[in-house]
């Protein structure tokens, strides 16, 4: 279907502009409420307005190029008829219509505007948008109407190799210059059924529909946004600097010293490194570069390749079991063949039985083929296991360090009180990357472990967080009201722990030497008595255990 779409010729700008100008004049003459001037946005809040608008549009078939931007909105906290669609947005590049279907119907499907229903049911007019199929399904569950000609533009993007999925991402890549989608929490409070719509609500609702048609047309024309197309030139960066930023993502998301599947690291870098999402918008290109970066990290010691994953999952176990079954069948077949050989010697004159034996040989050949297939399957399993190798960041995790005896001595020396130390240990798994203070408090309260602070008093928890900020253990993040572990403090702590580990290893080495000397002492002491029994002459000085050890 996409190939047919891409071959369509869009209406020329001149013809479309003339048509839209004519439509605007007719709508204004009918006093249809215009809630935005440039580009024009009309609010259809009654059945009369909706029918009048659609009659005008039907009289001007060229008002759209065969496709329109399509989206819906729903008032979140409506008491009556919750989760019933409030508004349908329909747009071309030049004009947008906001049909307030819940205000018109009050949830009664029988009151749904017939002309609007006919428009939605027309498969020749494509309705394009991100997750448009979901909007169509929601309309069907709300009003029992069928929408045809639905196109999910994220599917087109995926078919062409682009990984962006949300409308905001696709708009940044393919939207016209100047169109920026900003999602806001105000959407939870907005009333899309109100007679007087908030200007910000109008901008929000119409922008989604405008973005849908812009993105759709620009993807088909391979017309990427200038800022995306030239991002690398506008914001140059060396490969080493890029790798440093990517390694920082790994440090924030994966504890040191713990093994992780390589596929997880690759997936996170592909989805979280925003620069490459812009400079390498095609998924395959970005994947290849991320894999290359992982190999670089392994070669320079930033990552350590651990033994490949050996445990097969349940599916592989079943496949392996199936392979063994085929082998067993083959063994049994071989036994049958041995018997058939004996019978062949005795019954060569009996052609009928010989034919049956031939059939058995054919079955044996089939079993051999199955064995060959099972060998290939085993090879695939081996390759799969090798590809799922484990990687880890060298060093020790913050959780490990804080749980050690080193932390018990080191943290107080850095000015942390016992209360600070206890609280820091309890939040250590949350602070490697920026986290909102409110989220940190909630995570602390809900982690299900014994806590050093009364969870009923959130103010005390906030104060403890602020205290760690004042003592440079935590620092404020780039985003408002976020905190994370101070990198300089963490580096100093890690260096101290590394030194502590080395010193302990040296002590263990020295201890081993002492134990060896003690063992030698025991051996010599015992040999002193045995030598006497064998007639060896020892001097009085040599009979001393201490002197004997020195002489040795």
TrEMBL record:
Residue span(s) of domain 3'-5' exonuclease: 40-225
GO process terms (BP): nucleobase-containing compound metabolic process
Subcellular localization: Nucleus
One Pfam assignment: DNA_pol_A_exo1
Domain of life the protein comes from: Eukaryota
Any one GO molecular function term: metal ion binding
Polar residues bias (residue ranges): 532-546
One Gene Ontology CC term in the entry: nucleus
InterPro entries: 3'-5'_exonuclease_dom, 3-5_Exonuclease_domain, RNaseH-like_sf, RNaseH_sf
Basic and acidic residues bias: start-end ranges: 326-339
Region (Disordered): 314-339, 532-552
Predominant location category: nucleus
Keywords, ordered alphabetically: Exonuclease, Hydrolase, Magnesium, Metal-binding, Nuclease, Nucleus
Listed name of the protein: 3'-5' exonuclease
Organism of derivation: Diversispora eburnea
Source species taxonomy: Eukaryota, Fungi, Fungi incertae sedis, Mucoromycota, Glomeromycotina
